[in-house]
Design goal:
The protein is mainly alpha-helical and 385 residues long. It contains twelve helices and seven strands. β6 and β7 form a beta hairpin.
Length: 385
């Protein structure tokens, strides 16, 4: 099943790349039909598309994927140099699956330099007054000056990596402090999570939790919970701090315990479920990757191993069988029924490029044991294995 799903995913990824060149997929507002909007790189999501090219190259050895990925990486250099729409914390989402991947796979020194420059860009969002990375907007922004969001746990691996590559502890120190702040304020006592938390910008005094894309301020947005599962597991990989591992485990149990009948979650754990309630297939794909990462750090006799292995298997089988576009040769996306921002009527039921990426990453892990592009691999950089 995994092999057939991966081969179908690669065919669609290759066709998209050949058809659209250096245009990138963007999420549309509510519209008829299922497709991406293709245009230049101006959002936080493009890195996932390039990551799909690298995953396809690693899986198949097809140099066409390599050439498309390399051309895209050059465009990320242009975007950083011109500072195009980078006033946010999603620098890791943009530059880890693109430039960091190029370094890890190819040993490309220019890509390594680009990823390190991107880490420096992310460091500019550090707010020492409150010891957190500001999610959105410029420093002192009236609305977002004191905001953190759970998504950032997947951006800080770029900083951990930068410390490893440069020997400079400042990147790691910022990543750890932000992870600690997130663990304390974004994770609730019942192992659910806030999407966002606010601090008084000048003092760092905590104000309270809220949401931007979830059902309500006190609800648990499923994609946010998934970011937390994967992000804390990666912080454990980089630091060895068992608190992060335990937090990832707790968030994952909360997630799995609330699987619906078909093992693919709705867009929020607290939304009323009826025939019209929308799913978020992308949240389930992210969580599957997070649990696969978590499993790498659990002992063979850990009581939770079978529980999480079964959860990944069930969720991924459902994604392949019930949500993937296998059998739809002209589809642009890999999995359907993803949700971006339902209350904002942005991509409420469509393809999500991050959903496609994490679906493919999970297939790659399951089929070949090869992870994504969030940490340095031990193998030598000699191209495709």
């Amino acid at each position: 099943m995994w092999q057939a799903a991966m081969e179908d995913a690669m065919k669609k990824t290759k066709r998209n790349g050949e058809k659209h060149g250096l245009q990138f997929p963007h999420i549309r507002r509510h519209a008829e039909g299922k497709c991406y909007e293709w245009r230049e790189s101006t959002d936080w999501i493009e890195g996932f598309y390039t990551g799909m090219m690298w995953l396809s190259y690693e899986y198949s050895g097809d140099k066409a994927f390599r050439e498309m990925a390399q051309a895209q990486v050059k465009d990320y250099r242009r975007r950083l140099d011109e500072d195009v729409a980078l006033d946010h914390h999603d620098i890791g989402f943009l530059y880890s699956p693109s430039a960091m991947a190029a370094w890890m796979i190819e040993g490309d020194e220019s890509a390594k330099r680009l990823a390190l420059d991107a880490a420096d860009k992310l460091m500019k969002r550090w707010r020492p007054e409150g010891e957190y990375i500001q999610a959105w907007g410029p420093k002192g922004d009236a609305k977002n000056g004191g905001r953190i969001i759970i998504d950032c746990l997947m951006n800080i691996p770029l900083l951990y990596w930068a410390s490893e590559q440069t020997g400079d502890p400042k990147y790691r120190e910022v990543a750890v402090k932000h992870a600690d702040k997130s663990r304390r304020y974004l994770v609730r006592g019942d192992d659910s999570s806030y999407h966002t938390f606010y601090f008084e910008p000048s003092t760092g005094i905590p104000i309270g939790g809220g949401t931007h894309q979830g059902y309500h301020d006190g609800s648990t947005w499923t994609r946010g919970q998934a970011w937390g599962i994967y992000g804390f597991a990666l912080s454990y990989r980089y630091t060895g701090d068992k608190q992060y591992l335990e937090t990832s485990r707790r968030l994952a149990r909360y997630f799995v315990d609330r699987f619906p009948e078909d093992d693919v979650v709705y867009w929020d754990f607290n939304v009323e479920v009826n025939a019209d309630t929308l799913r978020d297939s992308s949240a389930s794909a992210i969580a599957a990757c997070g649990m696969l990462e978590l499993l790498e750090h659990l002992a063979e006799d850990d009581e939770d191993r079978a529980y999480f292995q079964d959860a990944v298997e069930r969720s991924m089988r459902s994604l392949v069988t019930n949500y993937s576009t296998m059998g739809e040769p002209d589809a642009e996306g890999l999995i359907d029924h993803g949700s971006y921002h339902i209350r904002g009527d942005l991509g409420p039921d469509d393809y999500m490029i991050w959903g496609d990426y994490y679906y493919m990453e999970a297939l790659m892990r399951l089929e070949k044991g090869v992870p994504g592009y969030w940490y340095e691999r031990k193998e030598a950089k000699t191209g495709v294995k």
